Write a sequence for this structure.
């Protein structure tokens, strides 16, 4: 996999956004412009954590495979093997979904 070759630094988290719904529950096809921005993503790689002033490492609050809620704007787009991923700081992630 592409993300195995890429390791985020410090408190960065690499996520893959979930795909937008293209069909409504009633079966109507949605055009691309009317689809909302997907704010849910799956964590595919995490950095070791941020280093504070005392040189202690503060671990990242999410783990690989967890589903998270992202802010509407922000993140850095990263293309690995023709697939779009996004880099966020750990503090920018709004929350995680619990099963």
């Amino acid at each position: 996999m592409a993300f195995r070759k890429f390791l985020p630094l410090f408190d960065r988290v690499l996520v893959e956004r979930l795909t937008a719904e293209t069909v409504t529950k009633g079966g109507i096809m949605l055009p691309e412009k009317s689809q909302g921005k997907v704010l849910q993503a799956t964590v595919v790689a995490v950095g070791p954590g941020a280093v504070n002033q005392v040189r202690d490492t503060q671990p990242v609050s999410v783990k690989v495979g967890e589903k998270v809620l992202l802010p509407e704007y922000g993140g850095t787009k990263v293309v690995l093997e023709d697939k779009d991923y996004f880099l966020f700081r750990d503090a920018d992630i709004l929350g995680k979904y619990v099963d």
Q: What stands out?
A: Residues 14 and 87 are 5 Å apart (CA to CA). Residues 12-19+36-96 form a domain with the 10 Kd Chaperonin, Protein Cpn10; Chain O fold (CATH 2.30.33.40).
